[in-house]
Write a structure and sequence with these properties.
- 2 copies of one chain form a homodimer.
- Chain A folds into 2 domains: 2-29 and 194-391, Rossmann fold; 32-189, Glucose-6-phosphate isomerase like protein, domain 1 (Rossmann fold), CATH 3.40.50.
- Chain A is 42% helix and 14% strand.
- Chain A has helices at 14-27, 42-49, 68-77, 95-103, 122-132, 150-158, 178-186, 191-206, 212-224, 242-256, 284-289, 329-345, 362-383, 394-405, and strands at residues 2-5, 57-61, 86-90, 110-115, 141-145, 161-164, 231-236, 258-259, 266-267, 270-275, 294-301, 352-357.
- Chain A has a 5-stranded mixed β-sheet with strand order 1-12-11-7-10, sandwiched between helices. A 5-stranded parallel β-sheet of chain A has the order 3-2-4-5-6, with helices on both faces. The first copy, chain A, has a two-stranded antiparallel sheet with strand order 8-9.
- The longest helix of chain A is centred in the last third of the chain and has 22 residues, at 362-383.
- The interface between A and B is large, with 121 and 121 residues.
Chain lengths: 407, 407
């Protein structure tokens, strides 16, 4: 992948960048996600190779970090190759949604992955109970959780297959661990290629330095200007990246919205996911003429793996649109993206950059996700927050617990 | 619907509010959307009653204001009642998306609605050409456009059925016009009830004054604090409202992100759509501990029309979660919402309010959408912007036109 930056890259911060890089290198020894591209996946490959061929549907019971990553990758790749099995998600306690999703499943051909790091997630366990009560067959379930969690103990007692999260890998950084790899491998997605893409970005940042400067410069820019540009938009020109942007929203928002470690100020950068060209007809006006509080990163696909052209016909009274004739749709969508970038470059004070993915394949999305994980770690370090915790969500959980106890 | 406000409502602005109300009453005589709840829909009902019964799929070729509204309503109601026909949307020039959507359609059982106010939308016409070239049968298409547009003239020549947008109704305010009503009526949705819901909000604002104060107070708060609270989140506790939030993003962002009429400053309020409880595991941390730059409106459903309970089983080692036993999922999701509201009330400087919809029906969603249209008009007036235009998107269109001409 390639990353072009259009805002002013201050060359002055050479020493500061060197220090940041050193800090991240130290952090990478204790925070688990950095090393996931190099993990041994033989057990996962073995598990998926020997998996019951009669199973047509894989269902993830998981929420947030347990679902957003695998969904992003599955939905990115689905349009170019029909998956070996269909992937479904239960992510809500909304009864309409649970009923609607269940309607689509033949339980006999379905396997459930219960994914919860702590094992005590209210949404996951309530839906699991709903499904398990009439289907108490241990073969229908695989559990992915922390070793020693109560869910692990339950699964052991039940006699179901278990996988464990590696140490020090938080939910929103877990897509390249068993959390993402198990469901994706069962759907026939090439997880080796996925990790290879991530590994290339890791090398390009830590070793040969190709992506080092764009990543450091972006992190510096976002952190230094966080009070003015408090909103960071991704504008991705392909419908296939819709769920990637949802994954990005969790990663960026939950990692960087914090009380600072030293100053105790409330800081945070607000992520927004946009899809082009659709959101040219929605959000673009606000970027162009609204308050200068947004940065925008465009993401383009160099190749769409799909040849499709506008037929060369003339529609009476619509001759002005004959300029569309014979154009490949993949050229059209990228021209639309380039036109918006050019238009925004003419505006003042909107920091822009552009990421180009080579193609719709597992390697591209693995690279993109690892790139964003690195960017999040770098920016969090500069904002002086703990990038890897989420203490703010506890208060609501405690109130819910009290409500449940008196229900 | 009911709207409870938890931030400080200044009682001092009595005169200012009276003036604002007077301005909006004047505006409502020229801006077309205000009066849509009272329109004559007999032609639409007749058209849908006599529609070819062999047609199973309705496809909207339209983007932005031509698609977001009908999609929001269709997706809101779909889980409680299987629609008479399925509704599809082509909203992108992404070839993977076009191919993927086409695969799901039996063209013989499909009718296409081409919706474009101006008639010259690049996305809509390029996809129309792709579909029309091999299927040049006038019976397969209905056109919804401005009277006298080039698309109108083309459709007249072709001999297809045409419907016209009423005067002075912009795309993003057009959901309750033919733009939304035709596709929804063809899918068997009760459009009379939809308009009735909107009418009740209109009466409640303009006549009996029940919703007048919450709407005026909210508009004042958002406008007066737009520089501090530049982000307005909707946190809706039902998956059925996911596409409503996408409609809201266009309405709010494109209406309010502008150069001011008098001061020529770039102003704007950034809309964000969140779905609970899912986004408790994503965005909530940023709201709780991040920068105080966000207001949050919670939307709840009083009734879900679906009885479903957590079975009263005990899972060994997970006994702590037995508090979930026998709870109705619709109570659980609303308790989750209430818990988050309580937790946020304990934080400082996060302006909150809460909207409760009585049920999942056409009247509720009609009311909610009209409520948000009014709120947008009121806030736009106070921000001193033209709420109804979108000049900022033209620059990109001009650049694209040049690129197409030299392709």
């Amino acid at each position: 992948m390639e990353n072009k930056i259009y805002f002013d890259r201050s060359a002055k911060q050479f020493e500061a960048k060197k220090n940041l890089l050193a800090k991240i290198k130290t952090e990478s020894k204790s925070i688990g996600y950095y090393n996931l591209p190099n993990q041994d996946i033989s057990e996962i490959l073995e598990f998926s190779k020997n998996f019951d061929e009669s199973i047509e549907n894989i269902v993830v019971l998981g929420i947030g970090g347990s679902s957003l990553g695998s969904k992003a990758i599955y939905e990115f790749l689905k349009p170019i190759k029909t998956p070996k099995r269909k992937l479904f998600f239960f992510e809500s306690t909304d009864p309409l949604n649970i009923a609607d999703t269940l309607k689509q499943l033949d339980i006999k051909k379905t396997h459930f992955l219960i994914i919860s790091k702590s094992g005590g997630t209210v949404e996951t366990i309530s839906i699991f109970k709903y499904i398990y009560a009439p289907n108490p067959n241990k073969e229908n379930y695989t559990f992915i959780t922390d070793k020693g969690s109560n869910l692990d103990k339950f699964a052991e007692k039940l006699g179901s297959k278990r996988f464990y999260l590696p140490e020090n890998v938080g939910g929103r950084f877990s897509v390249l661990s068993v959390v993402g790899l198990i469901p994706l491998a069962l759907c026939g997605i090439d997880i080796k290629e996925l990790l290879q893409g991530a590994k290339e970005v890791s090398n390009s940042f830590f070793t040969d330095g190709l992506l080092k400067d764009p990543l450091l410069d972006k992190a510096y820019y976002y952190a230094n200007n966080h009070d003015v540009y408090n909103i960071n938009c991704i504008f991705a020109y392909s419908e296939t990246l819709k769920y990637f942007t949802e994954w990005y929203v969790q990663l960026w928002g939950e990692s960087l919205g914090k009380n600072q470690r030293h100053a105790s100020c409330n800081v945070g950068l607000t992520p927004i996911g946009l899809i082009g060209p659709k959101d040219q007809h929605s959000f673009l006006q606000l970027i162009m003429e609204g308050k200068r509080d947004k940065s925008v990163t465009f993401i383009k696909l160099a190749k769409f793996e799909h040849e499709m052209y506008v037929p060369p016909i003339t529609l009476e009274h619509l001759e002005a649109l004959d300029t569309l004739n014979n154009i490949a749709f993949h050229d059209l969508i990228n021209m639309q993206c380039d036109s918006v970038i050019e238009a925004l470059k003419n505006e003042k004070k909107i920091p822009l950059d552009e990421i180009v993915l080579p193609a719709v394949n597992a390697s591209s999305i693995g690279a993109l996700m690892y790139y964003y994980e690195l960017l999040t770690s770098l920016t969090g370090e500069l904002l002086d927050v703990n990038t890897y915790d989420q203490p703010g969500v506890e208060a609501g959980k405690i109130i819910l617990k009290e409500k449940l106890e008196t229900y």
